[in-house]
Amino acid sequence: MQDRGLVQVSSPYSVDETLKRMQSVLAERKVQVFALIDHSGEAEKVGLKMPPTKVLIFGNPRGGTPLMVAAPSLAIDLPLKVLIAEDTNGKTQVTHNAPEYLQARHGIPEELIKNIAVVGGLVAKAVE
Fold first, then answer.
1. Which domains does the chain have, with CATH numbers?
2. What is the SS3 assignment for 59-125?
3. What is the pLDDT of residues 8-67, one digit of tens each?
């Protein structure tokens, strides 16, 4: 599903298992993980509840730097990120920005879109 520039893919695994699988795919491809934000874990620390919700931030300077040189505003959306969260039906969803959305938003040259289009394949591998 693509909506508002977002691509959402269902995962047959839990949020934590999907996260582990995503991290494994990134490690196999030597993609650097910059951060993991555990929104639900932080909410719990202050006595609030929310479904499991985590954001994984990752990238490769070899791919991202030429993009940001060509379209400097893209730095607001890079590094790449995926949201791994449990939806209202208890199913795990993996959401990321559509490369076409980022291209239109920042004016990324056509020949460089492949540098960020890889996110779809990485997510597909993690949820297979």
1. 2-127 (3.30.310.70)
2. ECHHHHHHHHHHCHHHHHCCCEEEEEEECCCCCEEEEEECHHHHHHHHCCCHHHCHHHHHHHHHHHH
3. 999 999 999 999 999 999 999 999 999 999 999 999 999 999 999 999 999 999 999 999
